[in-house]
Design goal:
It is built from three helices and three strands. A three-stranded antiparallel β-sheet has the order 1-2-3, covered by helices on one side. It is 47% helix and 16% strand. By secondary structure, it is α+β, with helices and mostly antiparallel strands. It starts with a helix and ends in a 7-residue tail after the last strand.
Length: 153
């Protein structure tokens, strides 16, 4: 009986381990990469939203426009860094409140009492293990700011 078992099943020893390693490489490695890619995209979306919100708050509470623009840029950089995204990958632009971020760039806020405008923060999302020149993925966050009506600037 022993010789029959050795003759029929003796060549199959250790094949389960080989099959498991093969399946692990074929299935789990791409799955981990997909999860890492989705988390990078989500981190970029969170970073852009937080950058727009913080830039808007910093600009709305500034004593003048020049100081406010500098504060807004720095607040956006800090918000992006907080999400573990490079601060060099953030662009802050402004648009009228009723326009979307597509019209951002030509508008300059004046911080008049009751003024409404949108702050648009665009963050470049880098997917892991892709080359540097593949940076077409961006996330844009928008935050509508209304300056205080009863502030003496």
């Amino acid at each position: 009986m022993r010789w029959l078992r050795a003759r029929l099943g003796g060549g199959e020893r250790g094949s389960a381990l080989v099959e498991f390693v093969f399946v692990a490489l074929v299935v789990f490695v791409p799955l981990v990469y997909v999860v890492a890619g989705f988390s990078a995209v989500q981190r970029g979306v969170f970073a852009s939203t937080a950058a727009a919100r913080e830039a808007g708050r910093a600009l709305a509470t500034a004593p003048d426009v020049a100081t406010g623009l500098a504060r807004a840029q720095r607040a956006a950089q800090l918000a992006v860094e907080d999400q573990s995204v490079e601060a060099t990958d953030v662009r802050v632009a402004y648009a009228p409140a009723d326009a979307g971020c597509d019209a951002a760039g030509a508008y300059a806020p004046s911080l008049l009492p009751g003024e409404e405008f949108s702050v648009c923060a665009t963050v470049t999302v880098r997917i892991p293990l892709l080359p540097e020149f593949v940076d077409a993925n961006t996330a844009t966050g928008q935050f509508v700011v209304e300056t205080d009506r009863y502030v003496d600037r």
